[in-house]
Amino acid sequence: MSDRDPSPGLSRRRFLGAAGLAGTAAIGLRPATAGAAPAVPDPDIVNLPDWTRYLGAGVNAHPYGVPSPFEKDVVRREVTWLTASSESSVSFTPLYALDGTITPNGLCFVRHHGGEAEIDPARHRLMIHGLVEKPLVFTMDEIKRMPGRVNRTYFLECAANSGMEWRGAQLNGCQFTHGMIHNVVYTGVPLRSFLEAAGVRPTAKWVLAEGADAAAMTRSIPLQKALDDCLVAFAMNGEALRPEQGYPVRLVVPGWEGNMWVKWLRRLELGDEPWEQREETSKYTDLLADGRSRRFTFVMDAKSVVTSPSPQAPLRFKGPNVLSGVAWSGRGRITRVDVTLDGGRNWRTARIEGAAEAQAMTRFYVDFDWAGEELLVQSRAMDDTGYVQPTKAELRAVRGENSIYHNNGIQTWLVRPNGEAENVEVS
After folding, report:
1. Is pLDDT at 27 greater than 80 in this prediction?
2. Residue 106, helix vs strand vs coil
3. If DSSP codes are grouped into helix, strand and coil, which group holds residue 233?
């Protein structure tokens, strides 16, 4: 019996008995003859697991569906020392445990600046003012009645994703190195519909988006982007936004850093220049080695990570295995992902599964055999603009080590002969 056989010791009799096809064995009794002693339960049937012997819970045991209790460890997690309090912190998507491309709503990473706002949608309003012909105020009912509703799949990545890795390998697990990202289907109305309803004045060049949370989160967005592909969204993955994701309404800014996707959206002001708010001056700028800062680095460049094997998803079996990972680009569509198992000496092209959509996560796979040798696993993404994901050394050569944001360098996992993996760097 192979060490990969999922069912060692499963006899034909046990199989048939479990399936209800083995005659008297199906009810756990041996054949009886007249005057014989009472039938003795078949030990193979007595040892059947409980879930085959008793009725399960009814159809409405969970009015809102929940995962199996055996998946209880697949949850968002915090790194408590990252910020002073959880109200201004982040919890990370468990990328290592997911497959496909769509992130379940309950596992989408969370980033707050002033805690989660609890908003009554009946009282919430969205105001549009500034350099417009006609200031407007929308109720949630009016937002949902706007024509032109769309469904679009986009990734949302915090600019600080992988930010702790600028000065070397720090956090052990792709949930923590890359988990400030999720990928969902948003339902909403193009932002341009609201701006056109208000009438954009010729002098307007920027839009200030403001949230209704305790931080009054604000970001300046170029008008050109606002009129292009931004959405005013009220649903994700087919249901209303979760409170932690901006219920009842948020801004969607495809391909651009997550800080601009203002949650609990309450105000849009049009102006002729950026507002230079806290989150675009002292924060969300990229400090270079010479002390200067890169400003308005909105786009999230092409990036990828192998989710399995990884520190939280070690290799468990020798022989055939499946390497899995995700790639994305704010500039467009992922066209290719290369994978190496030896730290970059040899690369192979991964299989991209499904349609690769622009500004959305792409899933890739590589089937490989593992004999227990040490591996150095990396992935390298390319998009349809010709951009190639850089190494961490290439990034540091240009930008130094002072930054927190926009770290899209190639990630390395060291897989040891026992299958366990560790976050490392290779020169």
Report:
1. no
2. helix
3. strand
